[in-house]
Amino acid sequence: MADKQESHLNGAFYGPAIPPPKSHHRPRRRSSNCGCCCLLSLLLKIIITLIVLIGIAILIFWLVVRPNKVKFHVTDVRLNELEYFANNSTQSYDLAVNITIRNPNKKIKIYYDVIEARATYHNRMLPSIYLPKFLQGHKSTNVLSPHYKGNQSMFLTPSEVEFYDKEKASGIYTLDLDLYMKVRLRLGDIVTGSFKPLVKCDLKVPLKSPDGRLADGSETSKCDLKIFR
């Protein structure tokens, strides 16, 4: 009996069974970077789509309308007087100019809402002239005729007086004529918003030319048109 008891006590004893450790599965967090990337990708696709649609619309408009650039030319210029009096710092002037505007478009009319004509001599501006507004029809030509005449106070530096004396001796004067405009376009019943083009005319004008020609003998001088200033 003692042997049985000893045999029972010497048997291997491991105690109660230990349950396996529980595995804890943490829920995966969705990266916020993924959301940002998806949003940026969507915005990029929208922008590309809009650009493509706008490009197609412009192409269709061009194919249908075939717009051409409006042309500006000085066709007659008469400088009857341009005198500087150093004793009282005044300038006397008499300048008449004809500017031809040609609209070559078949389907576009142009509203000239504001036309400001600025004439300058050696960076000294004569008083501006505002010309009447008008509507120019398609494939038509209009003529603007600003006339500058009067006196104004003007102080010239010694270098400017020297430049003036040289041109006075040659009888040919360098003048700039600019048109600051506010226009709208009309295509059928559609009228665009206003925009502000700028026309620049660089002139070499002889004093008291009897036929309105320029210094080089030409009858016309092409002006540069800038759609946006």
TrEMBL record:
A single GO cellular-component term on record: plasma membrane
Q: What is its subcellular localisation?
A: Membrane
Tell me which UniProt keywords the record has, alphabetically.
Membrane, Transmembrane, Transmembrane helix
Mind listing the GO biological process terms from this record?
A: defense response to other organism
Q: Where are the transmembrane segments?
A: 36-65
Q: Name the PANTHER family on file.
A: LATE EMBRYOGENESIS ABUNDANT (LEA) HYDROXYPROLINE-RICH GLYCOPROTEIN FAMILY, OS05G0199100 PROTEIN
Q: Which organism is it from?
A: Tripterygium wilfordii
Tree of life domain: Eukaryota
Q: What is this protein called?
A: Protein YLS9-like
